[in-house]
Amino acid sequence: MEVPILKQGQYLIASIQSALTDADLSELREALIAKVGHYRARGVIVDVTALDVMDSFAVRTLRDVTHMARLRGSETVIVGIQPEVAFAMVQLGLTLKGVATALDLEEGLAFLNQRSRERNDHGR
Amino acid sequence: MTTKEVTPAKGIVRISPMLSAQHLPSREDTAPLLAELVSHLRESRTQLREEWARRITLTQLLTAMSEDEIFAEATSVYDNYVEALATGTFEALQAYARNLSERIIPRGVETHEVVGIVLLLRDVLARSLFAKYHEDFTQLNRILDAYEPAANRIANTVAVGFVQERERIILQQQEAIRELSTPVLQVRERLLILPIIGVIDPHRARQLTEQLLRAIRTNRAKVVVIDITGVAAMDANVANHLVQTVEAARLLGATVIVTGLSPEIAQTLVTIGVDLSEMATVGDLQGGIEEAERLLGYKVLPLTDVTTQN
User: Fold this and answer.
1) The domain spanning residue B107 has which CATH number?
2) ipTM of this predicted structure
3) Contact (CB<8Å) A102/B214
4) Confidence of residue B132 (pLDDT cuts 50, 70, 90)
């Protein structure tokens, strides 16, 4: 199943609607990285609210997306991890180190806005 | 071959009903005896009740209750007891035992006391039967045959009722402690405090984490201060639980600050080499809240400062 990727201002929003296969996840990664360049996006939000399971492949893919997007000049934030999913993840040792997380879409947008403001302050 | 083995077994089976018939009289046989017994107990109600209450006081049971109370309870227990003997149904007695337990458990009455008074009543009644039938030994024997099983069942019912009530209360209290032990408090918009008191075992750690994660979601918290001043000891397991909690909270987008690590705990953690580099720690709860406010962009000023600034 294809994940819709929406452009919202300077940001890209990938909203996962249902459980994804490994192939779907890889496809999402390719699509996101391509669009970051295409739209010159400053930030990427991946919304995983609909996921009630997060396996090691999914976690690794999300981490890869973050690192690849950073190399292409874009911040990534993962939003909407469910409490049960978070608990299961830490028990499996999948902690998404170095990846920004936020409660929901709104918080994710606030985080990215804050980040770009900081960057602008530095640039001055 | 098989028939030979089966035959003696059948013989035993045939004998046993005869045995039981001899020793355990059937319901039809005991009914008139029980009726006689009940009418005897009703006739000597006053005297036996008083005797029983006297014996209770004498053996220093139910010291938590006054003599009047003992007598009042003795009366109702006695009546329920005779009622159970008369009707052969124990539901009313069971309900009464539960009700009685509910009243006396909070006053510190122990299990051995309840069992003790029921056995005393059994003894008092048996003695009155001896006194009444001492001239007719066969009749006494038959009366006792009827009385003993019923009396045992009554004692059993009351004791079990008491213990069940106790266990119910214990369960209730455990539940209450579990609920109480993990309060997640919101002190400011988007700031939660989780004070942990007592021992953290794996079960509690799991529950704590789940409750915190749920609270983060419902309160849309951004910063959480976990205060462990009240945690007496910490080992590698507990420390790892704490680290897991911090990481899980981060996955929901909340920052966790741990406060109140005592010198002993700090030493233990360094000695056993738990990696706490991922964890933000501040000395005490006050410092933790101040740090959290800073993260949230609050600045708390005394009113005097505010007015001078204006």
Assistant:
1) 1.10.490.10
2) 0.82
3) no
4) confident
